[in-house]
Structures are given as structure tokens and as C-alpha cells.
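Check my protein:
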Amino acid sequence: MADTPDELQAATASIECHSVRAHYLDASALVKLVADDPSEEPGRDVLRKYYRDHCGHQYATSYCVTEALSAFKMKFVRKQIAELQYIKYVHDFLRTIVGVNLRIDEVSILSPLVFSETERLIKTYKLDFLDCFQIVTILHSRFRVLGPASKSILITADRELARAARAEGAKVWECTTESAPS
């Protein structure tokens, strides 16, 4: 236990150097983890490396998982990918992402906080409900109490979501145009 101010400062610095932050991936980032079609190329490789290097601290809302599955379906329906590729994306997503390191974390969608905050965010940023729910989750989930060095980070390929989340005080990595966070 640290007894002097110097010892306390050294202990705090040590903790901050080894901080662990929660990484919340939205659907656009989740899709890039398995989709190999050209439309997912911007940021894909650096995101995959970052994801592998930060195992055990990845989260998404259940709705982001559903949106990612829907994105794979839309690629297939719009004939951007073949049926076998669609099946592979879904299989890989469930087997290597959802079934391995990705954990579900979200605030209760029925809470009064969600109702009031998502309405405010929709009106302010003109985002859809699920993007606003993602911001509310980042700012109000169980990890909100962690210190600055461990502040949760939203990982997205959606520039408008990134802009709004930053404006609300969230730490954000927009993986198609920005360098990976350190």
C-alpha cells in the first residue's frame, strides 16, 4: 500500500500504464472483422489487428450484433456477395467473434435514461435510435466509472456516429480514417 504522496503517485502511474479499457464495437466495425469484400477494405486490416491485440475487452450491444448480421444479409440480397460468402461471413462472425471474445454489454433499453437520452441525441445529431443507444451505452454502462486512462472507446466505421459520440464526450476511434488508439 502506498504511504507517502510519492509512493501514491508511483502506484497511480503504474496503474494508468497498465490500464484496461472497454472497446465497444458498433455494427460497422463488427462487419469489418469478418467481411472480405472490397467495400469493407478501408480500415479493415488495422481494425482486425487492433481487435486481436486487445482480446478480452471487446463489447457490443446485442443490437449491434443484430445489425451486423443484417448487414451481411443486405450484402447478399443486393448481390454484393454470393450465397457462399454470405454463409461464410455469418459463420465466421458467430464462431470467431460472437462466440469467442465479444461480450454483450448495454444499458437497459427500457430505462427512462434511454428514452430521454436517445430522444435528445436523435434531435441533436439526426442519428437513428440504435446509433443513439450505442452512445448512451458507452456513456452510461458499467464501465463509466473507470478513470481517464481506462475510458471506454467506441470503435466505428460510421463517421456521423463518431462525430456525435465525440461531441457527447465519448472516446472514439473511427477506424476508416484514423490511426488506431494507443
The first helix runs from residue 5 to 17.
